[in-house]
């Protein structure tokens, strides 16, 4: 039985959801997006493949859009739309979701503007068995009904807090959404975010804990300057344990100062060590 949705929350979110139309010589499609402050729209990267982008508001007004930034791996894109006048959404905290939490989705499936569907959260976490998807990224899985045109639209709790951005459907009709925490990290990301100058690989310890093993250090990088070594296992930052590979990048993006405290273990010793790293904004290497 469909979950009843408070009418006010659904109606408000419909007015904050736009239709994104893209067109080029080889591509024509439509998706959805959510309105952010500053005449911006957040949507999926795969929605904005065309050279000409148009955003259509709830009232039917069509406006030209340009891409401000894009992340293909996380499947997110931020658009700028001059003259956009629409209510903005409020991002909730996807980390507070639990299996069974009631949610609803808004989008424009097959061109039907402002369609609403409801369901519950199935799980939150990485997908290790879905071919073609980055296995290490964090996803929300829900049983809301999606169709072409829903991509980029909001997944929200019953009070209207947007906790995810609907992205695709996988086997069994389960919908996948980018968590709002990942969306916040994308929005906060700078062109040259601070980095550690390391290459890492996600691993699981014998005790069942998640960590990021350092494979390589960039010469002159921040991690090398902090005396970290290849083989060290990063297990947390600023006293917050890592659970997913995204957590390291998120910690770097959310750091307001120039230092980051990393928790790590060395040479198989389970006792955690701590080191303060002086961050640098450069392109020495990537922190995965």
Molecular structure report:
The chain has 288 residues and is mostly beta strands. The protein has three domains: 7-80, Beta Barrel (Thrombin, subunit H), CATH 2.40.10; 94-188, Trypsin-like serine proteases (Thrombin, subunit H, Beta Barrel); 198-278, Pdz3 Domain. It contains four helices and 18 strands. The strands form three sheets. Strands 1-2-3-6-5-4 form a six-stranded antiparallel beta barrel. A six-stranded antiparallel beta barrel has the order 7-8-9-12-11-10. Strands 13, 14, 15, 16, 17 and 18 form a six-stranded antiparallel beta sheet that branches. A hairpin with a 3-residue loop joins strand 11 and strand 12. The protein is globular. The N and C termini lie far apart (42 Å). Residues 282-288 have low confidence and may be disordered.
Write the layout of secondary structure elements.
Elements: H1 7-15, E1 17-23, E2 28-36, E3 40-43, E4 52-56, E5 62-71, E6 76-80, E7 102-107, E8 115-126, E9 138-142, E10 154-157, E11 162-170, E12 174-179, H2 180-188, E13 198-204, E14 210-217, H3 222-225, E15 233-237, E16 240-241, H4 246-254, E17 259-265, E18 273-278
List keywords for this structure.
mainly beta; disordered C terminus; Thrombin, subunit H; Pdz3 Domain; 3 domains; 288 residues
When the domains are counted, the total is 3
CATH topology of the largest domain: Thrombin, subunit H
Write down the overall geometry.
globular
Strand order of the largest sheet: 1-2-3-6-5-4
CATH superfamily of the largest domain: Trypsin-like serine proteases
State which percent range the strand residues make up.
Answer: 35-45%
Total beta-strand segments? 18
Low-pLDDT stretches: 282-288
What structural category arises from helix and sheet content?
mainly beta
- First and last CA, distance: 42 Å
Q: What is the average per-residue confidence, as pLDDT, rounded to a whole number?
A: 85
**How helical, in percent, are the residues?**
10-25%
Backbone CA Rg: 20 Å
């Amino acid at each position: 039985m469909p979950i009843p949705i408070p009418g006010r929350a659904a109606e408000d979110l419909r007015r904050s959801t736009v239709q994104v139309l893209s067109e080029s010589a080889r591509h024509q499609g439509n998706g959805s997006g959510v309105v952010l402050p500053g005449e911006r729209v957040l949507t999926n990267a795969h929605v904005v493949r065309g050279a000409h982008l148009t955003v259509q508001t709830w009232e039917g007004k069509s406006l030209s859009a340009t891409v401000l930034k894009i992340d293909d791996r996380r499947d997110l894109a931020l658009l700028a739309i001059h003259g956009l006048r629409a209510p903005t959404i409020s991002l909730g905290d996807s980390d507070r979701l639990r299996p069974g939490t009631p949610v609803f989705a808004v989008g424009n499936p097959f061109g039907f503007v402002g369609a609403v569907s409801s369901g519950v959260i199935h799980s939150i976490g990485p997908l290790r068995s879905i071919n073609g998807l980055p296995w290490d990224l964090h996803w929300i899985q829900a049983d809301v009904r999606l169709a072409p045109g829903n991509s980029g639209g909001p997944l929200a709790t019953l009070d209207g807090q947007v906790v995810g951005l609907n992205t695709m459907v996988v086997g069994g009709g389960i919908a996948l959404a980018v968590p709002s925490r990942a969306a916040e990290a994308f929005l906060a990301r700078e062109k040259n975010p601070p980095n550690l100058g390391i290459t890492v690989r996600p691993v699981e310890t014998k005790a069942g804990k998640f960590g990021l093993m350092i494979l390589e250090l960039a010469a002159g990088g921040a991690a090398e300057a902090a005396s970290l070594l290849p083989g060290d296992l990063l297990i947390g930052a600023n006293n917050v344990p890592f659970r997913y590979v995204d957590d390291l990048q998120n910690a770097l993006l959310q750091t307001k100062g120039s230092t980051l405290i990393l928790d790590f273990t060395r040479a198989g010793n389970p006792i955690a060590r701590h080191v303060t790293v002086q961050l640098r904004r450069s392109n020495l290497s990537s922190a995965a």
